[in-house]
Amino acid sequence: MTFLGMPTAPKGVGHLRGESSFPTAAEAALGDQQLRRNLAHATSTIRTKRAAAVAEVEDWAQLRAAGAAIKDEVLAHLDTYLLELEEKVTAHGGTVHWARDANEANAIVTELVRSTGSSEVIKVKSMVTQEIGLNEALADAGITPIETDLAELIVQLGHDVPSHILVPAIHRNRAEIREIFLREMSGVDPNLSDDPAALAQAARSYLRRKFLSAQVAVSGANFAVAETGTLCVVESEGNGRMCLTLPRTLITVMGIEKLVPKWQDLEVFLQLLPRSSTAERMNPYTSFWTGAVEGQDFHLVLLDNGRTATLADPNGRAALRCIRCSACLNVCPVYERAGGHAYGSIYPGPIGAVLSPQLTGVADNPSLPFASTLCGACFDACPVAIDIPMMLVHLRSRVVDDKAGSQRLPSPEAATMKLAAWTMRDPRRWTRALRMMRSGRIIGRRHDRIRRLPYPLSRWATTRDLPRPPKETFRDWWSHQ
Amino acid sequence: MSAREEILARISSALGPEPQTVEIPRDYHLAGEVAVPDPTGLLTDRLHDYGAHVRHCAPSDLSDAVGAALAARGARRVVVPAGVPAGCSSVVPEPVLDDPALSTAQLDGVDGVLTTVAVAIAETGTLILDGGPGQGRRALSLVPDYHLAIVKASQIVSSVPDAVAGLEPTSPMTWISGPSATSDIELSRVEGVHGPRTLEVILVHDLAWTTTLPDNNQFRSND
Predict the structure, then answer these.
(1) pTM of the model
(2) What is the CATH number of domain B29-216?
(3) What is the per-residue DSSP string for B79-96?
(4) What is the pLDDT of residues B183-195, one digit of tens each?
(5) What are phi and psi of B198, to 5 degrees?
(6) Which residues contact B171 (CB under 8 A, 6 or more apart)?
(7) How do residues A282-333 score in pLDDT, each as one tens digit?
(8) CB contacts, 8 Å: A167 with chain B
(9) Which residue of B has its CA nearest to A153?
(10) ipTM associated with this complex
(11) Interface residue A104 vs chain B (CB under 8 A)
(12) Residue A444: which domain range?
């Protein structure tokens, strides 16, 4: 499915589509008590910390406005800035590759790794390589990808999928992580405790051998500066520095929207990002490099994969401002309860609900724009002021239009809405309809709520309770006064 | 059509004719607009928050401070990049030079590394290394488990914009705010993962108005 004829992220590769719709997947997640405890603890902790980190910045509102405008300017002249970046990276000895979609990017990276003769790559945590399913593509080609971020390692060793942008293993607690390490990590001490410090040390010793011997690394990028060709990776553990610095070959995959026009623009994002994501004044490590440095071979892969389709919708375009801080996940009441896996895409939560359907086309993720209460907490938390609730409403209408366009007969929902519109248009019809609703008093008499309705309304009522209608409608009461 | 041409064509068709230039409001605090009252004190507090050790000294006592820090750590074989003040390298028991370039395995075998910094940010507790004199290539301050950094008070700026304004973006750069850390397990912070597990800073009070040292002690550490 395309928007204005623009190709979207292809099917059959990567992790943007779930196997079941959001309501089905969320129902399973809601039954998992452990998951709900982990999520509630994690999201409430980080919410509190983030609020404090943001409150201490006097000019937060101004930084936020500048961040949004910088990203809008990038999007408005994306072609110009990409060409500028390409020119600068090339001038500094790097090689730039362009990939229309996930398959093309995976093929480019696989070929680059093959040509080094290495059968192993170390990876910096990167959303975009999860998006395109790079690990699977490399494995198919006989190349072993090793995730080096602690949470990504937990996910990889647990044969699992990430459930949060920033803390991919947020759904696992320490006992579960200990189990995974004991089962999957070669050479681990069988007496390993479940203390987070001990678990982190186990990961350190396991990965250190890999870091010191790896020949090729794959990373994503947080920012790329068009005017200088400078790339930037923001991290905490030092695994990023290890991957970016030690191997002879560095391959960076980035979405085409990750640009900023000028070096000065980073003064905005390096304040917005750490405080919004990890609630720190500054993250422990940030690396910057321009082209091939310190004797490395450097390759930059610029990826579309549905981003131009997103750009083509003026009402959805702002989703490309996202800097992947995950603040919107942590404040979302739906995410807090359902968790990341329910969204089916590696971009979960509110931003995922607007980004994934645009990257894949709404036909492939039709339930996501509805996975929200539209409470607006995500918009308030977003450091680049993406109006996610407004965009969700817009995407809902695209889903409805898309369904109407692809079906000959109107859906029961569409037919019901038509009938409702007809009823509401005439005061007498409306009054009569309201009186008829009093019959619902009988259905609701046992629980003082209406919990089930006859077909076809039953489908709507399985996830919703209705209040028992009052004895008298407001209109009748008013006419007596 | 090549992927490059096709993506560029998609972008121009997505944007339509003559996309507008977006005005960027820069009414946030720009470089030079905010001066924190006590940059040295604030940087010290921030570094302590991150779990880094901080020692203070007068310029004339720098080499003694370096010697004391290394002795306290028990670090003997320490990498000394070219450009570290001569007085400091002379107090290192067994200085290790990166000439010819040390292998990663050799770097893994030393007790620590001693570097200077390009600039430090008080508000965020950030040290910035840009490969300038006394800092060496990036691997030197990464692989050893102990990083001792010399920061002069005159190198401390107040804010992130102050630092960004003074840096050359094309030099390979590392911004360091505390020792390596993770919050990936139940969001509880663990210090010391892959980067140096111990970060220690010697703050040299080389400005006239900061020569009064805290606590009237020559050296102070948080441990």
Answers:
(1) 0.92
(2) 3.40.50.10420
(3) E--TTS-HHHHTTSSEEE
(4) 888 878 888 889 8
(5) -125, 125
(6) A290, B130, B131, B132
(7) 999 999 999 999 999 999 999 999 999 999 999 999 999 999 999 999 999 9
(8) 183-184, 187
(9) B184
(10) 0.93
(11) yes
(12) 414-480
